[in-house]
Specification:
Blueprint lengths: L5 H5 L4 H14 L5 E2 L11 H12 L12 H15 L8 E4 L4 H10 L7 E6 L3 H9 L3 E6 L10 H7 L4 E7 L11 H11 L6 E5 L24 E6 L12 E4 L4 H10 L6 H12 L3 H21 L15 E2 L4 H7 L4 H12 L1 E2 L1 E2 L14 E4 L4 H18 L2
Parallel strand pairs: 1-10, 3-4, 3-5, 5-6, 6-7
Antiparallel strand pairs: 2-8, 7-8, 9-12, 11-12
Helix pairs in contact: 3-10, 4-10, 5-9, 7-8, 11-14
Length: 400
Amino acid sequence: MPAISQRARTLGTENAFVVLAEVNALQRQGRDIVSFCIGQPDFHTPKHIQDAAVDAIRAGRHGYTPSAGIVELREAAARNMSALRGVDIAPDDVVVAAGAKPFIGYSILSTTDHGAGDEVIYPNPGFPIYESQIRAMGAVPVPIALRESRGFNFDPDELARAITPRTKLLILNSPQNPTGGIIPRAQMEAIAEVLRRHEQIWVYADEIYARLVYDGEFVSIGAMPGMHERTIYADGASKTWAMTGWRLGFAACRALAPQFTNWITNTESCASQISQWAAVQALDGPQDEAIAMRDTFHRRRDLIVRLLNDVPGVTCQSPGGAFYAWPNVTEACRMIGAADSEVLRARLLHEAGVAVLADIHFGPRPDGEGQHIRFSYAASNAAIENGIARIADFIRRQTR
């Protein structure tokens, strides 16, 4: 058999989908599993957005579009992104893709050269595709630790020490997956101050959860003085409007928009025209249902944090945004004799019927940060109450 490339053999993955496959296999065997492993809104896409897609199909709007996307969506995205961030984004700065995720790879490809030793700094714990794509594109991954003591933010002084002449890109994610943490304004200003001393560094601002903020305010790095021109704003329809399967994302950066367009021409050709028209309605249409979904996530956040903090051996900070909780389970692991959070995760799945993700699914555990697991609270109140009750009962049974 012909050889498989080293790049393909070492390509990382998103463990949420790996665990989900395990959950599905157990459920097919008749097991009752409460799952918190997938970061996907559990709502239907609002009807007016669905109707826009049907109207597009009926009108024959289902062929290729320009690789950068239809003008109507680029205009809507520019207006929406500008208003949310307090910056000036023009329609020509915006490029549309099949989800926001492809822009991770396109950004690395557009700012680093394969095998040249170019470095990309990214948050740890963080969305696992960051590190996977950095390695696959031939750049050097440089993790920077998010500290529980800092509300799951990194120390700007650590960022300053991590930067070298080879640093080409910094990835920021706020609100963040997996911790739900938000970078506050003072921290963002300190990050911008560090970056202003290093003009060679682009910033990939992963802001897909920007509209899901419950505490404080959403602040974009691009709104800081001197940062707009070097910021890649990444956003999309998946989280806010429950459109994960529609695969529709957009990014804005005046300097790199032509490069992103070329990458899309070389890979996707264009995003689905049907999804693009649906996204126009998502951005420009009524926001009542999107606001209602956000308010529901807020209430679920409060519920799951309260319940987790009542579980023996578990402490949980209140996440400021997204729909993830990141409890510290160091003491729970000790109480039941679990070597680490991955052992706890496996035991919770097979012995308690609860599916979560372990911290090591989001990067190597930073020194001194203890053990954590991730919950996606994109689940009903009943599922949250049932799942956390199962975990509490499991820990109590193991420590009698």
